[in-house]
Write a structure and sequence with these properties.
Length: 441
């Protein structure tokens, strides 16, 4: 190990290093806070001036990140943020937490990783540790990231350390925080792996070392593909159970009583979030280079992508049973976030539901207690504010479509004032009046 990396190892051991986090979104900001809580100073990098201004003002822009704690670290000069990427040579450790979306053709869009790598290469100095956390296909770290970084004239694994460690954030889950979730880590060589493991051990409870960056990259894809395939299976069974007159939710409850060999998954209106709808296709794309068709992944994607269309079909059938056409009907969509009790709308199926409803002539309004205004998103452009749930609003619409089952909703109150409810989350089952008003979808 060269002296500069030996010096870094010593800094990490003494917790005297500066951490740089590139990308201060739903992964980067919680990760920053995790290390700040362990007395590690953090310099954040982001291109969004609003995020930087909010951090300096001590105001959190993510629901589960407390503003008062954030403000305390800012006031102590432990946490700062900048859009000046010429300062990338200041931190001893750099975490890359940038988006990895798909193109319109469901191919990996690597522009954010590539642009970040080029920015780092301009400022990279001996003795830095660079870790990619963004979910991606196996081989990204060594085949894409490392060559760009080495344009600096420095050698990966000798002059600077390089590793991959997939993020495992679960927003809205109070049971697990960033510090509690085991961290999988793989470096480009033994020295990089060891340094990365030592680094994460300064703030996280459990670090899981693997043999390579490729193994670490594949581990995250396996986790998300596992969920995608099983959600697709239960979504398909939901449609079959509807045709057979069987309650899929009752079936899941019954199967869940088996104490071994079964894990419950639940149907919904489609997949959302930045991981499960996107990440499996990173492996599909890479597998084509090896002439290997990933049939389970592609089939699961087809089923999950089709779910919003099934939901709208159920809306049309429900309205038709009341002698109302969908064209001209007023529909209240409950829940814009991709999962309950979070303020994250990324890849939410609610956007597709709104698009399909409007395309069929429905007038759509929405309510989400965590998202007061629809933000700009990649595929859609809706200018709408959350509608207050008053008795008058609930009674005035022709149909209520529950897409996200937030805990903040008073379901009995909604039931009492609604005329027709389409429930994609089984939230109204068992409530008084549900048999007459609720249609499962």
């Amino acid at each position: 190990m060269k002296q500069e990396l030996a010096n870094l190892k010593d800094k990490i051991a003494k917790k005297k290093y500066l951490l740089g986090v590139i990308g201060l979104g739903y992964v980067g900001l919680p990760l920053s806070l995790t290390f700040l809580r362990k007395s590690i100073s953090v310099l954040g990098f982001d291109l969004d001036p609003d995020k930087i201004n909010r951090i300096h003002a001590g105001r959190s822009y993510i629901k589960h990140i407390p503003s008062n704690e954030l403000a305390g670290f800012v006031q102590q000069d432990k946490f700062s943020a900048t859009a000046d990427f010429s300062r990338l040579n200041e931190p001893d450790v750099l975490l890359i937490c940038v988006p990895t979306p798909l193109t319109q053709n469901r191919e990996p869009d690597m522009q954010f990783i590539e642009n970040t790598a080029r920015s780092i290469a301009k400022e990279l100095r001996p003795g830095q540790l660079v870790i990619l956390e963004s979910t991606t296909y196996p081989g990204t770290t060594v085949d894409l990231l490392q060559p760009i970084l080495e344009r600096s004239g420095l050698k990966g694994g000798e002059d600077f350390a390089l590793a991959y460690s997939p993020e495992r954030e679960d927003p809205g889950n109070p049971q697990y925080s960033t510090a509690d979730i085991p961290k999988v880590v793989g470096g480009i060589n033994k020295e990089s792996t060891r340094l990365a493991c030592d680094f994460y051990n300064t703030a996280l409870q459990t670090v899981v070392e693997v043999s390579s960056t490729q193994a670490a990259e594949m581990s995250k894809l396996l986790e998300n593909i596992f969920r995608s395939v099983n959600i697709a299976m239960v979504n398909e069974l939901k449609i079959l159970c509807h045709r057979m007159g069987i309650d899929i939710w009752e079936v899941i409850r019954a199967s869940s009583t088996k104490p071994f060999g079964f894990m419950p998954f639940y149907p919904g209106p489609g997949l959302g979030g930045h991981c499960i709808p996107i990440d499996p296709f990173y492996l599909t794309s890479k597998a084509r280079e090896y002439d290997f068709p990933t049939k389970f992944i592609e089939l699961a994607g087809e089923i999950n992508t089709a779910m919003p269309y099934y939901v709208i079909q159920r809306v049309m059938e429900a309205l038709n049973s009341r002698r109302k056409p969908i064209n001209g009907s007023k529909v209240l969509l409950l829940g814009l976030a991709y999962k309950k009790d979070v303020d994250d709308p990324r890849e939410s199926p609610s956007f597709k539901l709104i698009e399909l409803l409007q395309g069929k002539g429905a007038e759509v309004i929405y309510n989400d207690p965590h998202i007061p205004t629809i933000p700009p998103v990649r595929k859609y452009s809706f200018s709408m504010d959350s509608t207050e749930l008053t008795p008058e609003t609930l009674a005035a619409v022709d149909c209520i479509l529950l897409a996200t089952d937030h805990s903040a909703y008073d379901y009995q109150f909604i039931m009492e004032h609604a005329d027709l409810i389409i429930d994609t989350r089984n939230a109204f089952t068992g409530l008084k009046g549900a048999a007459e008003k609720v249609v499962q979808a």
